[in-house]
Amino acid sequence: MKYIPYANTNKLASRISFGGWQLGNNEFWGEMTHSEGVELVKQAYTKGITLFDTAPGYSGGESEKIIGEALHAVREKVIINSKIGHKANGLTDFSVNSMKEQIKDSLARLNTDYLDSVVLHNPGMEILSGNSGHFIELEKLKNEGLIRAYGVSIDTHRELLEVLNKTDVQVVEILFNVFFQSPLSLFDVAKTKGITLIIKVPLDSGWLSGKYNEFSSFDGIRSRWDKPTIERRAYLVNKMKQITNDDNLTKYAISFILSFDSITSVITGIKNFKQLQENINAESFILNDEIKNELLKLYDEEIKDQPLQW
Ligand SMILES: NC(=O)c1ccc[n+]([C@@H]2O[C@H](COP(=O)([O-])OP(=O)(O)OC[C@H]3O[C@@H](n4cnc5c(N)ncnc54)[C@H](OP(=O)(O)O)[C@@H]3O)[C@@H](O)[C@H]2O)c1
Question: How far is ligand 1, taken at its centre, from the CA of residue 204, in Å?
Fold first, then answer.
């Protein structure tokens, strides 16, 4: 596993890291008990993962509790990134004066006294434009030692451009994968600014593993896809299978992202030991330039002018 310095934390992030949304999340992602979650996170650490992404809103605080319990004994060796804005009780609150309390609530659930980083959880453009006081407050909380770095979790090229132009955040978590390439042209600017770039949704919520097709049906968070959306994704997955000449796409999807050296780490959502191992294995797979160029072309020709919805 390769490791890259994480913002100003003096810690190293593994290039494959752990997305905590699935932990204990029976409402959105299927079955996982608390103790299964704790075991999965412990295994991830044992296998070399050092960066763990979570949020108060993931399974009503359960994701943070699982991560806190699993990593307590190795706290100084790991990086924990949590979020502000969507609270454990399901309410949304992006007010400046609630941020300290939200962080303290996360610290209690995580059983720790600092966050390596905290990111605003999909804030609006009025916050991303840097004039709202959020980043002044976060700088204060950083000086107080509650957090070591801060930033935003965002989805689009437009949002990233705003953040790069208007703020001094240290961490950006962003949606990027073979089917969502629009922010790519800004990644080198982020690198020049010294920003730690972490990639969410690397497998397009499971599609880029190659295991779903036009007949697949989904519940939980993925029930948002209607039939035409499923058929279009299935068509694109088939195109990718032709490009790679392989039915299992996971290693291509992950190594495509890791091939950009402006990217610090990829947070894959993980539901079991098999997925954990397979996603870690993808880190040592070298994507050849020919396939990489075809995947760039796939986006340009089939998706760019008619973007998919998340
Ligand atoms: N707004 C935000 O800040 C935000 C939004 C989204 C995600 N995130 C973060 O980013 C992380 C990753 O995003 P995500 O979980 O939404 O999407 P993802 O990583 O693209 O997809 C995760 C899903 O893919 C499937 N999968 C994972 N590894 C696999 C493998 N090796 N083979 C086959 N299937 C595999 C699993 O679902 P199935 O097995 O059920 O198919 C898993 O739940 C989240 O856990 C969360 O920490 C943040």
Answer: 7
